[in-house]
């Protein structure tokens, strides 16, 4: 089929063609970015934690400033440890998907000139490393001598265990064992590499920073108290945590139990993902509504043109055009309109993504989302125009003889 007659017909209906093409361009821009946001949200929802989530929970209490933290730890560790079903209980400053309490910036030189990025420190007392169920790639588990007292927010000079993602970021292509980094005056040396340990907040710098975590063996006491990692059998965990909360209230009546944070890691993950789940649903609804409006616009325009061209279609049928020829005419016409729209839409999609990057610190839109959006709109256009095109193909040749 020749394209020139179709283009000539479209030029005679510039306004209608332009409106539909711009509607398709807007749909393309929103579709590509919305799909990218949905995939990003789903990736965030299903993020790997690196710990044995099914067996872990935490009990968190808040004590006043004059609280004896050593005594508080002793009482709560004893009380929670006596709860039937508790396999282990240890002190830790934070858990995955809970409140973050150890976010710091690190440098690769003592002068602080070479920045290493913002990471999360997991400060864990004896037993916490094993309880988390971390997978060790290099080095050995922390020994008794590795647990150091805190000097402020963390030990001043300690051996640490870093994740493989963080090690590759800090020392790409090198063996991280023995490498050093600093936090102001605090000095740390890598003694082991973990397969993965997600940051509590999921990574403030985007998906690539989610695993920038450091495990620091620390002695519980002043600066490390009030947060307790509980391990139990998965099928008993909820009951164990309920009893552990009651035991904590009885053992430390002067402390305030944080019931929102005193839950299983699985429940903390659900709370952490609530906004992502809600946003995913909203974006799916936006995409569905936008595609429906676009499809209705194509159907309306094609139906209008079929009604206007009935005599022209009858003349073509009388001159020998088959039903297939008429059907292909409208399909080709729709393909050209959609193609003009998606050409503009791809530019709008990148423009919208640049605005989202600047305003909400979202990552750059991958190029492969553009052809996916284009193909989706081409298919949508062909499906939307099919019914009007079939009605046009059914116009009999006798229509040409009527005035």
From TrEMBL:
Residues 286-396 form the ABC3 transporter permease C-terminal domain. Keywords: Cell membrane, Membrane, Transmembrane, Transmembrane helix. The chain crosses the membrane at residues 20-39, 277-307, 334-356, 368-387. It comes from the Bacteria. It is a multi-pass membrane protein. Belongs to the ABC-4 integral membrane protein family. This is FtsX-like permease family protein. It comes from Dyella mobilis.
């Amino acid at each position: 089929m020749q394209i020139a007659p179709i283009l000539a017909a479209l030029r005679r209906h510039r306004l209608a063609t332009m409106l539909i093409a711009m509607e398709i361009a807007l749909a393309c821009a929103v579709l590509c970015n919305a799909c990218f946001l949905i995939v990003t949200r789903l990736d965030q929802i299903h993020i790997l934690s690196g710990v044995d989530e099914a067996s872990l929970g935490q009990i968190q209490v808040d004590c006043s400033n004059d609280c004896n933290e050593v005594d508080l730890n002793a009482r709560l560790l004893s009380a929670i440890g006596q709860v039937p079903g508790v396999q282990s209980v240890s002190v830790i400053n934070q858990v995955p998907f809970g409140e973050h309490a150890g976010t710091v910036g690190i440098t690769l030189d003592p002068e602080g000139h070479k920045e290493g990025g913002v990471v999360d420190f997991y400060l864990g007392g004896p037993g916490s490393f094993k309880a988390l169920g971390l997978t060790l790639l290099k080095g050995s588990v922390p020994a008794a001598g590795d647990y150091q007292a805190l000097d402020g927010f963390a030990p001043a000079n300690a051996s640490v265990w870093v994740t493989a993602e963080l090690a590759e970021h800090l020392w790409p292509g090198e063996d991280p064992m023995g490498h050093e980094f600093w936090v102001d005056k605090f000095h740390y040396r890598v003694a082991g590499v973990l397969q993965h340990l997600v940051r509590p907040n999921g990574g403030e710098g985007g998906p690539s920073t989610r695993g920038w975590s450091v495990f620091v063996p620390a002695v519980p006491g002043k600066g490390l108290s009030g947060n307790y990692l509980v391990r139990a059998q998965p099928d008993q965990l909820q009951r164990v945590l309920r009893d552990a909360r009651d035991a904590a209230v009885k053992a430390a009546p002067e402390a305030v139990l944080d019931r929102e944070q005193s839950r299983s890691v699985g429940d903390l993950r659900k709370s952490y993902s609530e906004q992502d789940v809600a946003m995913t649903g909203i974006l799916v609804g936006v995409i569905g509504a936008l595609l429906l409006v676009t499809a209705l616009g194509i159907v309306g325009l094609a139906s209008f043109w079929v009604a206007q061209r009935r005599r022209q279609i009858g003349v073509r049928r009388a001159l020998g055009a088959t039903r297939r020829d008429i059907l292909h005419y409208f399909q080709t016409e729709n393909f050209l309109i959609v193609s003009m729209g998606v050409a503009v839409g791809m530019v709008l999609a990148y423009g919208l993504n640049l605005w989202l990057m600047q305003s909400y610190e979202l990552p750059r839109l991958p190029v492969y989302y553009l052809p996916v959006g284009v193909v989706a709109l081409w298919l949508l256009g062909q499906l939307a125009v099919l019914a009007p095109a079939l009605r046009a193909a059914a116009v009999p040749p006798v229509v040409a003889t009527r005035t």
